Amino acid sequence: MSTSLTSRSRTTAAAEWRALGTTVRVVVTEPALLDSCDLLLARHLAEVDAACSRFRADSELTALDATAGRPVRVSPLLAEALDTALRAAEATDGAVDPTVGSAMDAIGYDRDFTLVREDDRPVRLTVRRTPGWRTVLLDRATGTVTVPEGVRLDLGATAKAWAADRAAQTLADAAGCGVLVSLGGDTAVAGEPPAGGWQIRVQDVTGPVDETPAEGPYATVGLHSGGLATSGTSARRWRRGGHDLHHIVDPRTGLPVRSPWRTVSVAAATCADANAASTAALVKGAGAHRWLTRQGLPARLVAQNGTVVTTPGWPTTAVEAAA
């Protein structure tokens, strides 16, 4: 689906479709280049899926399950995705950890989310600390990775945001115009932005960009560069065997995190950095505001009761509203 809109003085054009189990949106400041950018983005995301999907039996990531602790060579694309995940783990003190794959399987998130909600198999919730990101060894010089036997990787906390960063820059370089790429709300921008920046609505409940959220507070901010990401515990929820579950796992327990925040939005130099920080904030719980402030990251945190708090740097010009 393709639409056109005007942002201040510059016309933009947008297309929206689905890939990687989520909504893909690309916006360009040169409408005539939308179709070519859309095709290039589709090719890029297909490559990311083949390398990084936990749900494809033929993906490179899945193949690591059978390596039994042996170092194996991986594609440059997967090596870059793994490097991003390991750097995110280090930057968040392990709050975001790619070794949660088995924990995700254990709570029933072992297939595309549309299928997870239809599955009624019972789950047994057991507190079990994840193996830890330091057990994974990535040698960028040789392009090899070593994953201990029994450790299953999940790049869900970083791969989409990293793919958005990579895609936005690739498209901007190829088209020579401003580009916004959003993958399930993980948003990266590159090139010359529209006047006033890219106007992005931050909200609790995922929904169409042209519709006001039916519930929950929301804010509109102008993004000129880098990335913006929102993590929450309400968008991907399911019920299994009497348990209410969601996809944000605490590496310390291997279980869905219990956080005082229902959503956290962060702006950073890259979408990958923003998403790692927003996810980590949910895991860090009550200490999240202080941690984000120490990191110098502009952020907006929405408590379970709907109260909104922000860190220094979050734009004071943001238009805040309650649905």
Describe the protein in words.
By secondary structure, this protein is of the alpha+beta class. The chain has helices at 34-52, 60-63, 76-91, 101-106, 113-116, 159-175, 271-284, 288-295; strands at 2-7, 10-19, 22-28, 72-73, 137-139, 144-146, 179-183, 186-190, 198-203, 217-223, 226-232, 237-240, 243-246, 249-250, 255-256, 261-268, 299-303, 308-310, 319-322. The longest helix is centred in the first third of the chain and has 19 residues, at 34-52. Mean pLDDT is 84; it is low at 1-9.
Short description:
By secondary structure, this protein is an alpha+beta fold. It is built from eight helices and 19 strands. The longest helix is centred in the N-terminal third of the chain and has 19 residues.
Topology:
Blueprint: E1 2-7, E2 10-19, E3 22-28, H1 34-52, H2 60-63, E4 72-73, H3 76-91, H4 101-106, H5 113-116, E5 137-139, E6 144-146, H6 159-175, E7 179-183, E8 186-190, E9 198-203, E10 217-223, E11 226-232, E12 237-240, E13 243-246, E14 249-250, E15 255-256, E16 261-268, H7 271-284, H8 288-295, E17 299-303, E18 308-310, E19 319-322
Antiparallel strand pairs: 1-2, 2-3, 3-7, 4-6, 5-6, 7-8, 8-11, 9-10, 10-19, 11-16, 12-13, 14-15, 16-17, 17-18
Task: Report the end-to-end length measured between terminal Cα atoms.
Answer: 27 Å
Which class best fits the helix and strand makeup?
alpha+beta
Fraction in beta strands: 25-35%
User: What's the oligomerization state?
Assistant: single chain
Which sheet architecture does the biggest sheet show?
A: 9 strands, antiparallel
SSE run = EEEHHEHHHEEHEEEEEEEEEEHHEEE
Low confidence ranges? 1-9
What best-fitting shape do the alpha-carbon axes yield?
globular
What helical percentage do the residues reach? 25-40%
The rounded Rg comes to 19 Å
Major beta sheet, strand line-up? 1-2-3-7-8-11-16-17-18
State the helix count.
8
Total number of strands: 19
What would the average pLDDT be, to the nearest integer? 84
